[in-house]
Amino acid sequence: MSVAFSYLYDGTLEGLLSAVFTAFQRRECPEDIVTEAGLQESLFVSYEPLSTDLEQAERVQAGIVNKLGPANYDNVKRVFLSDDQRKGGIILRYLQYTLRQGPHSCTHLANPVVHDFEEVLSVVSKEAHYMLQFVRFAQLEGGVFFSRIEPKASVVPLIMDHFAERFNVQPFMIHDARHQLTGVFDTQKWWLLDARELQLPEQTSSEDEFQSLWQCFFDTVAIQERRNPTCQRNFMPKRFWGNMCEQIPAQLRHRRPQTTTPTQAARQLLPA
Amino acid sequence: MELLDKLAILSDAAKYDVACTSCGVDRQAVKGQLGATTAAGICHAFSADGRCVTLLKVLLSNACAYDCAYCVNRRGNDVPRATFTARELAELTIGFYRRNYIEGLFLSSGVLRNPDYTTEQMCEAIRILRDEYGFRGYIHAKAVPGTSEELLVRLGVLVDRMSLNIEFPSETSLKALAPQKAKEGIVRPMGFIRDGIKANYQDKRLSTVRRTRFVPAGQSTQMIIGASPETDHHILKLSAGLYQKFELARVFFSAYIPVNRDPLLPALSEAPLLREHRLYQADWLMRFYQFDVDEIIDAEHPMLDPLIDPKCGWALNHIDQFPAEINKVPYEMLLRIPGVGVRGAKRIAMARRERRLRFEDLKRLNITLKRAKYFITCNGAFAEGVLFDPVGIYNQLVADARGRRRKGVLDGQLSLFAEPEADMGAWGQAANVSPTWSAQALAAAGKSAVVPPEVAAQGARLLAAS
Fold first, then answer.
1. Are A242 and A150 in contact (CB under 8 A)?
2. CA B290 → CA B218, B293, B301, distances in Å?
3. Which residues contact B188 (CB under 8 A, 6 or more apart)?
4. What DSSP element (H or E) covers A35?
5. Does B422 reside within a domain?
6. Inter-chain contact B365–A110, Cβ cutoff 8 Å?
7. In chain B, what's the furthest Cα-to-Cα distance?
8. Which residues of chain A does B46 touch, with a Cβ-Cβ cutoff of 8 Å?
9. Cα–Cα distance between A215 and A232 in angstroms, integer?
10. How close A189 comes to chain B (CA, Å)?
């Protein structure tokens, strides 16, 4: 084969898995598997659009689960949720390597193919964990709890189970503004909504009160003598702050406590 | 008083307590009830001091009958006081939890009247949260020293973690600085909780259906560092003993931050944050890296080196065990290489089954070579430019750490421009931390060139004056 070529798929997981199927079936090694949107035309690469075949996708899925275990299929799904343009090629090369070598090869971390896969996987997994930490809900009129997020990967499907379990007594929505994807939970089951624009009711009247209380707690709990903004940003990168109510600047807050705190009172007694 | 003001007072009064972890117990969600816990815990925010916020950390009341010298809530202090009602506390916890602000509640309290009365009030507040609100999130409660065993059982089945603060690393210091607390009152309940966890003590007044595990996430403790004269050696021996004897989940250290004026307390110019950081590093070596306390520190050198981390210190003192050949040494030895963490060691052990690892492979495994490169070989060869000479390595490590501090890129929770604090070997010195000390130490380590001239000048003046 002299000319480099890539597959085009429709952007769905099933589409990607059918493309993987095609590559295995034809014993081909495409440069990459890309979507129409992520296409960067190159003079030296030809593109072949592939159609999505659910049956082929299911066979690939079954193959991964049988040969590499369900946890590895889960990892493939996670990498698929990444925003990385290279993910199609990365998944293909990973599957070509591991399906041939067997399940132990998933731990060949120094292998470039496995390494690329693991790297993207860790970005997605970290992003999902950041969401478990930093999602902030606000209660809307009607009782729904709403959260807006802007993650680096489309992780809403990965975090819905977590919230649906612990918050099973409250309906909630998590709106990913970057990927236009909304997870909805109605206290029975959750589903995904492709929503460009949301019509939302106002926040409840008690919402401001809870946010003020939380802001007050967040400010007070820091110890002045230990101030360390670098450490704070390392653990909680600034890109999340826009959607976290405790990070609103002091002058924009609804209400602040009137009292002096014990530390402030005691400090006045200390020698300068 | 408004709830907002109460919260400001009672969270401020609680913030000097270190423990803010929500780990140690996996509790599945139940349909129709709010909350669940995960074994690893989840941090929901990081406050301006870089500490994690995972629980709503408050006192039930800061009206305290005790007069501990170091504590902001001591009876003798003229500070605002407040007390939550059980209902207020429950509403606050639930409201925060529903918004994903927190994993649960950390409840401590000043001593109201006496330990038993205080614990009863805490039990009632937590019971309301568990029973009436069906809350299944994490709860950490402080046990007040001197509480009766019956009440400890009642509290223990309601919460996930319990802790008693030993406050100071020695009985002498405890007596001097916390006159109303006694070692017996702390150690006996600790032993009781340990036995309770093993035997799964139950509150017999509850029906068998409603019984839950006793303190499922284990117990922890904390002590204040730098307000009393104990050495690092003493502190680490003590915490090793606590892990062993009382099977604690964690021992926390808290750098002393002066909030009160008291003749018994030292006048530190700044909190000993670096010392606290080194102690935590040593603690990690014991808990996750299979180090024995006697390997980390000995009575002859009772203080950890402030300039390099204890693992580097150990490696330099046992240089005969290095260099470690990455492709050969057992996992236990991988764990002992400075700069290689538990994850890193596991990744190396996995990856070397496939191929002989080279330095570029280590980078692919996300192993930071900054410190590790001095102590390892790949296929028999050192990394480029590495001279295997303990003195040279020491100087290089010190210089690297100093460069990081300059840039403000710091590991752990050091303050931005924190200098290494004084040699705490002698009590008198600890009280007089001078910024020139680090300059002297660096000069001794052969790095005088990096000492800022104004600091050196000040040091010279002080030396001349003495």
1. yes
2. 21, 10, 21
3. none
4. strand A33-35
5. no
6. yes
7. 75
8. 231-232, 235-236
9. 16
10. 12
Write out pLDDT tens, residues B362-410: 999 999 999 999 999 999 999 998 989 889 999 999 998 887 766 544 4
Across the interface, do A169 and B357 touch by the CB < 8 Å criterion?
Answer: no
- Please tell me the distance from the alpha carbon of residue A55 to that of residue A51, in angstroms, as a whole number: 12
Contacts of B15 in chain A (CB under 8 A): 220-223, 263
Q: Domain range holding B215?
A: 3-222
Is residue A187 within 8 angstroms of chain B, CB to CB?
Answer: no
Which residues on chain A are in Cβ contact (under 8 Å) with B5?
Answer: 257-259
* Chain A residues lying within 8 Å of B261, measured CB to CB: 269-271
Which residue of A lies nearest to B3 if distances are taken between CA atoms? A213
b/e burial code for range A92-117 (CB count within 10 A of at least 16 → b): bbbbebbbebeeebbbbbbbebbbbb
- Encode pLDDT of B206-233 as tens digits: 877 777 899 999 999 999 999 999 999 9
* Range B337-343 contact pairs with CB under 8 angstroms and sequence separation of 24 or more: B337/B372, B337/B375, B337/B376, B338/B309, B338/B311, B338/B312, B338/B371, B338/B372, B338/B374, B338/B375, B339/B367, B339/B368, B339/B369, B339/B370, B339/B371, B339/B372, B339/B373, B339/B375, B340/B367, B340/B372, B342/B288, B342/B289
Crossing angle, helix B310-317 and helix B390-407, to 10 degrees?
170
Place of tokens 């950490």: B140
Whether B110 is in a domain gets the answer: yes
Contact B160, B37 (CB under 8 A): yes
The answer to whether the CB of B49 falls within 8 A of the CB of A222 is: yes
Residue B111 covered by a domain? yes
Residue A154: which region, alpha, beta or left (left: phi > 0; alpha: psi -120 to 50)? beta
Q: Provide the CATH number for the domain around residue B128.
A: 3.20.20
Express each pLDDT in B38-80 by its tens digit. 999 999 999 999 999 999 999 999 999 999 999 999 999 999 9
Alpha-helical (H) ranges within B335-421 are 342-351, 359-364, 369-372, 390-407
Q: What is the pLDDT of residue B202?
A: 86
- Taking contacts as CB-CB distances below 8 angstroms, the residues of chain B near A259 are 1, 5, 8-9, 80
Number of domains composing chain B: 1
Flag whether B394 is in a domain: no
What is the tens place of the pLDDT at every residue in A92-138?
999 999 999 999 999 999 999 999 999 999 999 999 999 999 999 99
Query: Are B79 and A266 an interchain contact pair (Cβ–Cβ within 8 Å)?
Result: yes
A137 to B408: CB separation less than 8 angstroms, yes or no? no
